[in-house]
Structure formats: structure tokens, C-alpha cells
Amino acid sequence: MPSLRDAARGRILFGGDYNPEQWPEEVWAEDARLMREAGVNSVTLGVFSWARIEPHPGAREFGWLDRLMDLMHAHGIGVVLATPTSSPPPWMGARYPETLPRAEDGSVIWYGSRQHFCASSPVYRRHAAALTEDLAARYAAHPALTMWHINNEYCTHCWCDATAEHFRRWLTWRYTTTAALNEAWGTAFWSQRYDSWAEILPPRTTQYRHNPAHLLDFKRFTSDALMECYLAERDIVARHTPHTPVTTNFMPLWAGQDAWAWAAEEDVVSVDVYPDPQDSLGGQYNAMLADMTRSQAGGPWMVMEQAAGAVNWRGVNHPKPAGLNRLWSLQSVARGADAVCYFQWRQSRQGAEKFHSAMLGHSGEQGRTFGEIKRIGAELALLGPEVSGVAEAGDVAILHDWDAWWASTQEDRPSSLLSYTEVVQSWHRGLWEGGFATEFARPEADLSAFRMVAVPHLYLLTDAAIDNLVTYVRGGGTLVCGFFTGIADEDDRIRPGGMDARLRELLGIRTVHEWWPLDAGAVVECEGFEGGLWSEELEPDGSAETVAAYRGGELDGLPAVLRKGSAWYVSTLPAPEALRALLGRAAGEAGARPVMAGLPAGVEAVRRGDVLFLLHHGRGRVTVELPGPHIDLLTGAKADGSVELDRYGAAVLRSTTAP
């Protein structure tokens, strides 16, 4: 099977989306020259070019793309060629309105933007496949082609009649009979029993609340329907170029795709990463996305998009301060990225994204951003032979699951303040600040390689997942389980006792009498720390130790943190310092160790193979003590015993001590 290694060939791919159809052709040669100057070795072409290639139904205008492919090849730049199917031309919506998605209330989502297609539309799929077929046939043998990029940021939802028919087929495949579906959906509630498949609709606008199991299955279906579109195009290009890797880009922590399932169908797992430069935890968020994507890939992965400066879609769009783009790019490489790319190469002068930054901004080649891009390109060229193809695995895992996420974010839960992603990020932050190399894993995955497994919050767990956790702990693993976990089965049916009995026995809990969610900003006092967001009225079964109890209020004296052997249960969200200490204690007792101890505040240490990355997320100058002499691969300078890091500074070190 082709992989990112086939495209990278011992390098780190560096470049970004190139949209030359927005510019006069005389600009293209200048672009190619500046790309070479910046160290660009990869560009993505064609992402939004459907209307340029097929200006009216059946037309094929490839001449401009031929010249671009040849131009890139002549300058030694590889092409990630995109199928431009994420944004159909206006003629499709005008001639074939059935291809346009409909909202929950039945209103049409019109063309005039992007991603205006119904994934279930046979007409859309037919046109997309025809264009992909011709694109693949034309460029299969072109020497510039290094990778295929299918569509872009799959994110459409639709509630139209074609989607309804497709949803019924999917439900028939899942349940076989309406009796089984009625049982799974609990349709005895509110007289919702379905007598035939034809009665079932997508969860459109209703008088009051939707059936939660209906909503959950529609989210599963939507992810699968979009993936059918991806697979159809992937299979076409793979037939023409079986040795060329294929990818499609994920949006970071987006609920619409089950990225575990999607990643299994990609040769290269890629993601778009856009931390907020104003966020003091932007570096941690970037690290979390890297850890998650590397885990989905099972090895090296690709930053398909990031911003060279400001984006255009936040309320206030702040640029990246000098040095931050370099720092976050090196952080991605440290955590396994073999490709660091941007949206986009040249900043647009028109359109909705004209204020979104680019590698070559409105200020041109004299601008600060382009100067930083050139430095990053030169440094990645140095690092490619040192780290490409290597991806270091952590010995601590965070469990993450889309079904649990989908189910936990629906209406009518104990607290609308409970955010799945915020809880996951809080726990990852504790491990990141503690310096632990961290992976992500599915609840049903083989966990035996991990010294510790953290479960921040998995409201829904299958029987297989619960049995997997029990097996892991009984095999000697350390489990730290967060609140409101194991409450429902795969049909969003509450388990007897309010929490699965196997999990309660594992954690030493006799009964969860009540969930006590907290108001915004409220805290509960616990022994040694404060908790936020959530608390629980637990009754231990006598086999567990109370590590910390609640102090004051309705839960006074009851356990906030329980421990039974190597299984821990945390019934609130401890303040960041307390959560870091708790996870660090459990990980340390499990035999996990930070990459480096005693680091100054704000300094992150990451190993990739035998290379040590030191990344400084602060603004002051710091000194990092080193375990012996090293050489900095970025500068060639020797570091004997310590290294100085300026604001947003980085050092990439190899030990010079003989093994």
C-alpha cells in the first residue's frame, strides 16, 4: 500500500494549496521562482477548480492545468493533485437542483459558496466520478504527481428526500428489520413506533425534542455517506495510479466524521490545524491535534493546512507573532508530521478568504511572513533526512470515540455545559504539561502497549469497549477514568444502575446515586483541590480507597477521587494543576516517565526517534539543562550541558555521546 513515505522520499514536504486560477498566467513563473526560493517542494493543485476544468456540463479544459503541472515539475516541485469535487460549479445547482443540500427545515442550501452538495445525490456522485475519472486518466503518468487529495474538508449535512432514501437503506443494512430498529431506538417512548421503512425520515425539524437514538444513527449515517463519496473517488484514482498515495483532509476535532473509520481508508492521514495565536494554550491544542492525527495514522502524518499568519473567520483575526509560525511547525514535525503545508501559497485579492494569510502575503516577498516561510523551509530541509519516516509512540493513551462524542452532545442531558472536547483537551493538557508522550486510541483497540490509559469522558461505551478496559486493568494496566463514563450502550440506552456494572466493579463503586452538574463558574471543594463542571454522589463498595473527598455542600465527605488497585475514578474536573498532578502520579506509578524532567515553564520536550526537540512556548529567554553534550541540527552548534532558548525558540538536538 502506498504511504506518505512514497511521496516524501526522505524529505519533509513543505508547501501548500496553490490556486493559480485566481491569477493571470504571467504570475505563475514568478510563483515558481519564489517557491524555489522558499524551499517549497510540494503544492496542492485543483482543490476548487471544478468550474475552471468543466465550465459547462461535459466540457474538459485541462490545458491550463497541463501547463501548471509541467511548470511545477520543471522547478522540482511535486504536486498533490486534488479532485475538485468539494465545490460544484453554479451550473450544477442551476440545472440539477436535486444536488443541493437541504436543511433540517427543508430549506435549500443554495450555491454561491462552497461544499454545496448532497452526499446522497446520485446526480452529484455521477458528475463527480466522471470528472475524477478524466482527471486521473490524464495525469496518472505525469512525473509531477506525488499524491492525490480527494475533495476537501468533507463537512456537508443534508436532510433532503434523496438523503432520506439513502438513510433508510443504511438503516436496513444496520438493523435488517423494523422491529430491531424500534427496539434500538426505544420507539415505545412518545408513540414513535415505525411500521415500515418508508415512514422513517432524517431527523428534520420537529414540534419538540428528537429521539436521541435517531439523532445518533443519523450522525453515524452522515459520516458513512460522506465516506462513500470519498471512497468512490479514491477507488477511481487508485485504479489509475495504484502506487500513488491518497488522502483527504480532516478538520481538527470535527464531530461530523468518525476519523478512526476514515483514517483506515487513507494512505496518508492529513489534518488542517488552526490554533488561535491569542490562545495561551494554542501550543497545547496544536500538540493535541498532532497526537490525535499521528494516532489515527499509526505513523507519520501530514499537516495539509495551517495559517502563515491570521485567519479570516474568527471574530477578531490576530496575526501570528514573529516566531510562532516556526515554533508550531516544528512542534508538528516533532510529533510525527512528514509534511508541513499551508492554506495557501499566494494570498487571494478577491473572494471570501482575501484576508486569510498565505505563505506569500499581500506584502509580497519583502514581508515578514515570507521571510519566516523561507527560514522554515530551509530548516525543514535540514530535518527531513534526520526524522522523516519516524513517528515516536507514547506510553500513555487517551481514549477518544466519535459515537460517545455524538451521544454526549445531544439535548436533554444533565448539563448543557458539559463539552466533550473541552474535557478531552483538559486531560490532554495535564499530560502535555507533565511532559508525557501521549497517544489517542479507540476504546475497543488493543491497549496492552500502554502503561496508562486515560478516559476523560466516554458517556457511551459498547460492551466490547467495557470488556476491553476490564481486561486491560486485570492484565496490569493503569486506568484513570473520568466522570459520566459508561452510562449508555451503543443505542444510547442507559445501563442498569446508571453506570455499567462491570465498570462499577472495576472501579469500586457500588452506586452512583446522583449526578450533580455544576453551574457555569461554580466549583466544588475537594481535599487538596477545587473541581469544576461536574460532581457525583458516589457510594463506594468497600474495595476502593478514597484518594480525595468532597468538602462541604451536599457531597461533604463523599469520594471525589476513588482508587481500586490500578484503576482510578475522578468524579469531577480538577483544576488544571490538580489534574496534572493526579495524572502525573498515576502515570509515574504505572512506570511512564516524562520525556525530560526539570524543564523551565513553557518548554516542551519531544523525542522523534533519537532526535530531541525542545520547544519554548514562552516569551522570555530560558536555559534548558541537557543530559550530556548535543549538537543542534538546525544550526550545527554544539550544546555542552545546556541550551539557551529565546522567545518561541526551538532547538533540535542529537546526542554526541557514544551509545
Tell me about this structure.
The chain has about 650 residues and is α/β, with parallel strands linked by helices. The protein folds into 3 domains: about 5-160 and about 205-385, Alpha-Beta Barrel (TIM Barrel), CATH 3.20.20; about 395-590, Rossmann fold (3-Layer(aba) Sandwich); about 605-655, Immunoglobulin-like (Sandwich), CATH 2.60.40. It has 18 helices and 26 strands. The strands form 5 sheets. A 9-stranded parallel beta sheet has the order 5-4-3-2-1-9-8-7-6. A 7-stranded mixed beta sheet has the order 11-10-12-13-20-19-18, sandwiched between helices. The protein has a 5-stranded antiparallel beta sheet with strand order 22-23-26-24-25, covered by helices on one side. Helix 6 packs parallel to helix 9 (about 210-240). It starts with a helix and ends with a strand. About 50% of the residues are buried.
Give the tally of β-strands.
Answer: 26
Proportion of strand residues: 15-25%
Query: What is the CATH topology of the largest domain?
Result: TIM Barrel
User: Which of globular, elongated, flat, extended, rod-shaped describes the shape?
Assistant: globular
Which structural category fits the helices and strands?
A: alpha/beta
CATH architecture assignment of the largest domain: Alpha-Beta Barrel
Please give the alpha-carbon distance between the first and last residues. 35 Å
